[in-house]
Amino acid sequence: MMNGITANAREYWGEVHLLPTGVWLLLITYSLVAFGSPMPPKITWLEIVMGCGLLLAGIALAGSVIREARQQRSAEWCLGLSALLCFLPLCVGLLRGNELTDMARDIFPLMFLLAVPILLINSASAANCATLRTLIAAALMFVGIYSAVTFFVGAHQLFGSANQMVATMRGGFAQVVADRVVSHAGRILLEFNNPGRLLSLKLYDPATLFASIFLSGWGVILMARSWPGWLPGMVLAGMGALIGYEFMILGLRAYAAFFVLAILTICLTQIRERGFFIRLLPILFVTCVLLWPQIEAVLQLL
């Protein structure tokens, strides 16, 4: 397995020069979000650097997008619909007299969400597609894992342990009253400038969801397919499950449900493998038995 990974890495490295400079700038700039917040309370030098990097990357890749739009009708439709998705709500906001700062707060993230996939897709070619796909996954994994680790370390410093955080969160949700006054746990995570709230936002980055599914999914596949992949697969699955556990202790039900459904889907694709019943299911059963108190507490929280 290691030989195969090394061979693939060498192959991708040999194709790195085929990627446009704008792609490198875009991915590196996006990776900086790991050191900030997906929803920063104020603009700092990090957000300024990211904004400038994304702008320069967009300018560098705009030519390829325009060429694709001229050659392919699907790319033209994509650009047109994306422009409408930005322009129509903006017009509605202006007609309703919304504050320009409020509209800017929404329109710029929307442009980022729309522009980045368009720029990357139209930068792909038959020669660099595999390398580009690998680098995108690597950037997402870096942001997702770094954000998850940052949350885990910060939560341990604030609460002492994951179990204590679950207990505190349960107490906070249970004591919500009609005037929306919450307990100490709620205030820790809801106050705007509180470190607890800023820490909890790290898990809202979609890269953390991608990382959890990617790690656990490959862990399931490796455990089901061969004995040599059993131990690496167990490590990967455990890492992904730990990130999924963080979603659950924070009460992110949509993230937690999507993670579980994705892993169940991957399990269904491996159900015909002999190792699914010999290696995967026994490990899953033993893990559930050993961690049942934590699992029960999280289910009650959700």
From TrEMBL:
Membrane-crossing residue ranges in chain numbering: 12-33, 45-65, 77-95, 107-127, 134-159, 203-223, 230-248, 254-271, 276-295
Key words of the record: Membrane, Transmembrane, Transmembrane helix
Keyword Lipid metabolism: no
Keyword Protein biosynthesis: no
Protein name: Uncharacterized protein
